[in-house]
Design goal:
The structure holds two protein chains of two kinds. By secondary structure, chain A is an all-alpha fold. Chain A has 15 helices and two strands. In chain A, helix 4 crosses helix 10 and helix 5 runs antiparallel to helix 6. The N terminus of chain A is likely disordered. Chain B folds into two domains: 172 residues, Response regulator (Rossmann fold); 124 residues, Response regulator (Rossmann fold, 3-Layer(aba) Sandwich), CATH 3.40.50. In chain B, strand 6, helix 8 and strand 7 form a beta-alpha-beta unit. The longest helix of chain B is centred in the C-terminal third of the chain and has 18 residues. Classes of the chains: A mainly alpha, B alpha/beta. Chain B: Pfam families: Peripla_BP_4.
């Protein structure tokens, strides 16, 4: 829809002969610049190569795929700017869905009660990650790998123990389900096209995260702890509190994703979610977050998720040989990231 | 302090916000007990089952519940282990041999990796029965018999059924790249199906990805009139995807669960091909008992087929209770 004209303007921005210098300067200082150019390139590529890619219905599908990644990629990006990793995000989403479903079912409670309990449990997991990290000073890689493995086991073990099978029971006939489905998994009709409500959640999270990063004191703290936590502590930044907060932010998004999973499919498989954590991290990195912390943006992560969504669905629209699907996906992502890095280097040089 | 407050708050909220529909209470109302006593007084033999299942797989959960039920009836001590990686599955079989079990039930999803360890078990005098996959290798490795479904035959059954229903353009959705059984199923469909069959690979551990990929495929190819999913959890997602893409494509599926039965009932799922996992587990243990007790072997050692059984709308009412309790 409106993506093309604005994106094009940004695409031409690096050419300093055509645009005012001040505009270029401000564009170049943004971490998401490379990702936006990459997204435009991927978009144009698939528009040319896949004939049904440009239809609004297809765009809605692509946006849905992007949003399910993007909801998680945004807080993951914030965490990475703060200098930390989280490998437990993929299974945390599944845990969150399992908790709501099983609590509601076992207690025969209104599903909103389960949703509330799930929020508390998920935030507690995020808080646990943050506390363990700041108390033990172990690398986040080890802490969250531990959480990842524990959650994977808990998801399976507890579900089997409580439900008797490895997936949850259907809760679609329970009170509160229709309303909760409206909130987490409904479809909105816009210009005769149905859009998934997750897209709104995604955009909302991007807006909130951007506001926190650029307009609040907490935002400064995040950049500071990511740049160097000792220096940050020396100037009075509450390092531990910031990091715990970031992990809880990731948990909050995992809760939103988990509720979408539950209310869209109404039954949750306990083994799902493994491997998704890498996709969230990849989206953040494509969006311009540095693996070393201290640099990046929420908008960039959203654009990274969008590249991921476009690529994975674009390959289907282009009807490429399915045997090579994963190869194409990897190659496209690598190309988009390389283009991103190249643009940033050029921008920094000029 | 905080913990106690949270627990108190949660309990209060739970009591205040009860659902009068669905939930565990409804399940308990429906609950029917299956007997839990052994029917024979043979010695308590120890039988181990080692499969290639991943963690939390619905299908293998049902196989296990069949095996457990037979074990109770036959006074057998049932041991279970699984690993989706062939090398580690072989190690598990080895550890069962070390435990000196009286019988071994294994799957041969990756036959080459399992060959030496299965032969070792046979040499150690442990009777082996293979289930689910490895029909060709079973005899050759020295197993007594094979219980399962020929994947290609099951695929062919789907192709035939689609022809009967007038399908022209089908889409085979594979949820695990590189799974030989999945490829065989799709190839089987292709063999007998008179129309065109296309393949689509999706990421089975990521349900939103499955949905958006199938939607994308249906949007780009509106000739598709049938979506074939290879596992029960993916059928409902395919129905959703077709709905979202505004496509008239019907969904048919391999395997069964409660949602597929609902789908059969309301017509959103055309038919399901069941290989009866409960039967695979139950028969394996029961045949092992027969062999130990009486040196009997059903089918004279020829493969015992548990599928394909084609299930349609008329079977749905009867199946609903069984899927609910996790045995179909």
């Amino acid at each position: 829809m409106t993506t093309t004209p604005t994106a094009k303007a940004t695409a031409e921005a690096p050419d300093e002969r055509l645009v005012h210098r001040s505009l270029v300067r401000s564009a170049m200082s943004r971490p998401e610049l490379g990702a936006v150019v990459g997204a435009v390139a991927v978009f144009i590529f698939f528009s040319v190569i896949a004939d049904s890619f440009l239809e609004t219905a297809s765009l809605s599908t692509v946006l849905y795929a992007s949003s399910t990644i993007g909801i998680m990629a945004v807080p993951v990006a914030l965490l990475m700017i703060g200098g930390e990793f989280d490998l437990s995000t993929g299974v945390m989403v599944t845990s969150s869905a399992l908790v709501s479903s099983m609590f509601s079912y076992q207690m025969t409670a209104n599903v909103w009660v389960g949703i509330g309990v799930s929020l508390l449990v998920t935030l507690a997991i995020g808080c646990f990650n943050g506390l363990m990290l700041t108390r033990t000073k172990l690398p986040s890689f080890i802490i969250t790998l531990g959480t990842f493995l524990m959650l994977t086991g808990l998801n399976l073990g507890l579900t089997k123990q409580i439900s008797g099978t490895v997936s949850t029971k259907s809760i679609s006939d329970m009170e509160g389900f229709p309303a909760a489905q409206k909130v987490f998994a409904s479809q909105l009709t816009l210009f005769d096209v149905e859009f998934q409500v997750t897209i709104l959640w995604w955009l909302g999270l991007v807006a909130v995260a951007t506001w926190i990063l650029l307009r609040t004191r907490a935002g400064n703290w995040i950049f500071a702890v990511g740049g160097g936590s000792d220096a940050a502590r020396a100037v009075g930044v509450p390092v531990a509190r910031t990091k715990i907060g970031l992990y809880m932010g990731v948990a909050l998004a995992a809760w939103i994703s988990g509720q979408h999973l539950l209310f869209n499919y109404d039954v949750v498989q306990s083994g799902e979610g493994v491997g998704n954590e890498l996709i969230y991290i990849a989206a953040a990195v494509i969006g311009g977050c540095l693996l070393t912390g201290g640099y990046g943006s929420a908008v960039g992560a959203a654009v990274g998720a969008f590249i991921f969504g476009m690529t994975s669905k674009g390959i289907v629209y282009a009807q490429w040989d399915p045997d090579w699907f994963k190869f194409f996906l990897g190659a496209m992502l690598l190309l988009a990231t390389l283009l991103n890095a190249w643009i940033r280097k050029r921008a920094e040089a000029s | 302090m905080l913990g106690a407050a949270v627990v108190a708050g949660v309990t209060a909220a739970a009591l205040a916000g009860c659902s009068s529909t669905g939930g565990k209470r409804a399940e308990e109302r429906r609950a029917a007990d299956a007997g839990g006593e052994s029917a024979v007084d043979t010695p308590r033999w120890k039988v181990a089952m080692v499969t290639h299942s991943g963690d939390g797989d619905t299908y293998w959960d049902i196989v296990q519940s069949g095996a457990k039920q037979a074990a109770v009836k036959d006074n057998i001590e049932f041991l279970y282990a699984h690993d989706k990686e062939a090398g580690r599955q072989a190690q598990l079989v080895q550890s069962m041999i070390d435990k000196k079990v009286d019988g071994l039930v294994v799957t041969l999803a990756k036959p080459d990796a399992m060959k030496s360890v299965v032969q070792k078990a046979v040499k150690a005098g442990i009777p082996v029965i293979t289930i689910n996959s490895g029909q060709e290798q079973s005899k050759q490795f020295g197993a007594l018999t094979h219980i399962g479904q020929d994947e290609t035959v099951a695929g062919e059954a789907v192709g035939d059924e689609l022809n009967k229903r007038g399908g022209k353009n089908a889409l085979c959705v594979l949820h695990e790249q590189g799974n030989v059984g999945h490829e065989q199923r799709c190839d089987g469909v292709e063999k007998t199906f008179k129309g065109k069959l296309k393949k689509l690979y999706v990421d089975g551990t990521n349900m939103p990805d499955v949905q958006s990929s199938v939607t994308a495929k249906l949007q780009s190819d509106d000739a598709v009139d049938t979506v074939v999913t290879l596992g029960a959890p993916f059928a409902a997602t395919a129905v959703k995807a077709a709905d979202e893409a505004g496509s008239d494509a019907r969904t048919v599926t391999f395997d069964l669960n409660a949602k597929v039965v609902d789908g059969l009932e309301d017509g959103s799922v055309g038919f399901a091909v069941d290989q009866q996992p409960y039967l695979q587990g139950y028969e394996a243990i029961d045949l092992m008992w027969l062999y130990r007790y009486n040196a009997d072997m059903l089918g004279g050692g020829k493969p015992v087929l548990t599928g394909p059984q084609i299930l349609t709308k008329k079977d749905a009412p009867e199946l609903a209770d069984y899927t609910e309790r996790g045995t179909r």
